[in-house]
Amino acid sequence: MSYFFNYNKEGKGLTPEDVASESPIKLFFTEYLHRFWQLVLLNVLYLIACVPIITIGPATAALNYVCRNFTQRKPISFFSEFVEKCKEHFKQGLIVGLIQTFATVLLVTSFLSWTSASWGASEGWRTMAVIVIFLVGYLMFFGSFYLYPMMVSFNLTIKQLFYNSFILAMTQLWRNLVILGVAIALLFLTFLLWPLTFPVILFLFFATLFFVSNALVFPVLLRYVATPTEEEPVEEVSSEDPVE
């Protein structure tokens, strides 16, 4: 493998002049193409790590850690650090994953119950219930894109992780729409020519989605969750107070 992909060898990199002269969008695509084959391997590694369903939370935390470093153009041995972060954030990732799974099942069950014709509630109550379910689902879905990068970047409790992620999900609307647009585009591409497009999920879907989300949300996390004193993002920042 090393004959074809030497990920430990440094490339020419970006100079400060390059960063200053290029648009953020162009820099994003440059980095994505530079990391493309690593993202393919990372996506496969993530799917393998998620096979035991109980490890989805820790694996998602590790995936976000690697994608965060990719978007920040930091050198990283993605395989070894993926495994290391799975272990490091296993307990917190497991608890968060179980909470999210329980909440998802509860939301789906509630939606099916309130939209069922056999439910005895009035039309008004059913409409209000569905609106509440969608609002909670919105917070849970988009909050996840802030929650896991916070988990691997800052020293926060589970309560603070959920609180901060919900606040950011409510206030960062345009970022949420971009993430949603990317997710819909990938799903559309996947199911348009199914099963020929099965490799999209196998090799690209999750790594691409979290690469995009980390590029969008990590600057926000540095701004509102932590106050680093250095120009380069710190590996892990202590933050005792949630987002205000």
- Beta-strand content bin: under 5%
Low-pLDDT regions = 1-14, 228-234
Helix content: over 70%
Question: Between the first and last Cα atoms, what is the distance in angstroms?
Answer: 48 Å
Radius of gyration: 19 Å
Main beta sheet, described?
A: 2 strands, parallel
- Total DSSP E strands: 2
If you had to describe this structure to a student in words, what would you say it looks like?
With 244 residues, the chain is mostly helical. It has one domain (16-227). 71% of the residues lie in helices and 2% in strands. It has helices at residues 16-21, 24-34, 36-49, 56-71, 78-88, 90-114, 123-153, 158-171, 173-192, 198-203, 205-224, and strands at 154-155, 237-238. A two-stranded parallel sheet has the order 1-2. Helix 4 crosses helix 7 (123-153). The protein is globular.
Produce the secondary structure layout.
Blueprint: H1 16-21, H2 24-34, H3 36-49, H4 56-71, H5 78-88, H6 90-114, H7 123-153, E1 154-155, H8 158-171, H9 173-192, H10 198-203, H11 205-224, E2 237-238
Parallel strand pairs: 1-2
Helix pairs in contact: 3-4, 3-11, 4-5, 4-6, 4-7, 4-11, 6-7, 7-8, 7-11, 9-11
Question: Can you describe this structure in just a few lines?
Answer:
This protein is an all-alpha fold and 244 residues long.
